[in-house]
Write a structure and sequence with these properties.
globular, 10 strands, 10 helices, 2 domains, 3-stranded mixed beta sheet, 2-enoyl-CoA Hydratase, Chain A, domain 1, 5-stranded parallel beta sheet
């Protein structure tokens, strides 16, 4: 599923309508068994510039209860989500990218968390997630200076999985999504669940979750299909069961 934030005249800033739209799209992604991977992008050469301040002044909220900024940053999705970033990914826009599992960035994209320049912090998960994704001192430079970096620099830091020519991020993200759909959907969901469960907890607790997930996978039809397909030297046909 390709999900596009479509407010190019507002540089795809998030208002209540965008938050509701992203939430609905993610719900559809989760509910439809024919959809295996989501790609999130923005229209008109901009990913997202964060919260729509004009809408906020009118009382609109860019957050969804229990789901966070734009209905994404605190959502517990079982299916992989890839950010395809062109242009600006600033503030909440950067946090949307951080809320995805993979990031594809155009070389001239701009990633930044400028909240401190406005007397705020990156409260859409940026202050928590960024120091876990890149080295501490580099994350703190983002968070304390508020200065953006290019897509090329994001790739160098390991923040972006792929760096593309300008205008090519969606195409590359969709190719990456196709690669993921070659794998078993139950296994992809289990990877996400175990990674979340292992975050900040003792190893013994993480291993218990991992063993439980592995036990469920071993009894699944997809696991049997995967092993059978390997033995028969053919591509597996996943059923998500």
């Amino acid at each position: 599923m390709l999900i596009t934030i479509d407010r190019p005249k507002a540089r795809n800033a998030v208002n209540a309508a965008v938050a509701a739209g992203v939430t609905a799209a993610l719900d559809e992604l989760e509910a439809d068994p024919e959809l295996r991977v989501g790609v999130l992008t923005g229209a008109g050469g901009t990913f997202c510039t964060g919260m729509d301040l004009k809408a906020a002044l009118k009382g609109e909220s860019p957050e969804v209860l229990g789901r966070g900024f734009a209905g994404l940053t605190e959502a517990q999705l079982s299916k992989p989500l890839i950010a395809a970033v062109e242009g600006y990914a600033l503030g909440g826009g950067c946090e949307l990218a951080l809320g995805c599992d993979l990031i594809v960035a155009a070389e001239d994209a701009k990633f930044g968390l400028p909240e401190v320049t406005r007397g705020l912090i990156a409260a859409g998960g940026g202050v928590i997630r960024l120091p876990k994704r890149i080295p501490y001192h580099l994350a703190m430079e983002f968070l304390l200076t508020g200065e953006p970096v290019s897509g090329i620099r994001a790739g160098e830091l390991g923040l972006a999985n792929r760096v593309t020519a300008s205008g090519e991020s969606v195409a590359v993200a969709l190719q990456l999504a196709e690669r993921l759909t070659a794998n078993a959907p139950l296994a992809l969901a289990a990877v996400k669940k175990v990674v979340r469960a292992a975050d900040g907890v003792p190893e013994a607790e993480s291993l218990a979750v991992m063993r439980k997930e592995m036990g469920g996978l071993m009894s699944s039809a997809d696991a049997q299909e995967g092993m059978t397909a390997f033995a028969e030297r053919r591509a597996p046909q996943w059923k998500g069961k």
